[in-house]
Amino acid sequence: MIDDTHHALLKTAAESHDQLIARPAGLNTRAAKALFAKLCRTALAVEVVVTGDERHWHQDQRGPIGLRLTPAGQQSLGFGLAVSVLAASRPVLDAGSDRAEMKPRSGTKQALIIAMLRRDEGATLADLMAATGWLAHSTRAALTGLRKRGMILTKGCDAEGRTVYRLTDDATVEVR
After folding, report:
1. Which part of the chain has CATH 1.10.10.10?
2. Which of 4, 56, 100, 129 is 20 to 30 A removed from 145 (C-alpha atoms)?
3. Which InterPro entries does the record match to this protein (predicted)?
4. How is domain 109-168 classified at the CATH fold level?
């Protein structure tokens, strides 16, 4: 599963204050992608958006993307779960992450969607499609992405019987 080289990378990350796994020097792009995917698949590390001055593996539309050691990764190395590690972990796709860390950059389509979903009247799929210029499947994928990030998305009907989506902070609401 994880060889000695990978184990050394994880151990170095566990001993660092930010828990970020450094991309090995001299690793070509293809090999780095494969290693990144392997570490994420094992659940020992999680993909996170980092600041420009932190260690990262690549960049995408969200910004620099790094790998952070998970609590499971720490346990596999024989380390206990430190509170600082749990507080430092801000996974991109983890449903348990802190909502304050999920604020999108202003002016983006994602920020527009979130603002529309937070309105009292919510937003229909057609509203979201018109605002973003996306097709239905892309708009639904964006909604799924919000759910995966831990946001609570509810579905209801408006007076005309159309499906309306809303974001809420109430964790007691049943999520579909």
Report:
1. 109-168
2. 56
3. DUF3489, WH_DNA-bd_sf
4. Arc Repressor Mutant, subunit A (1.10.10)
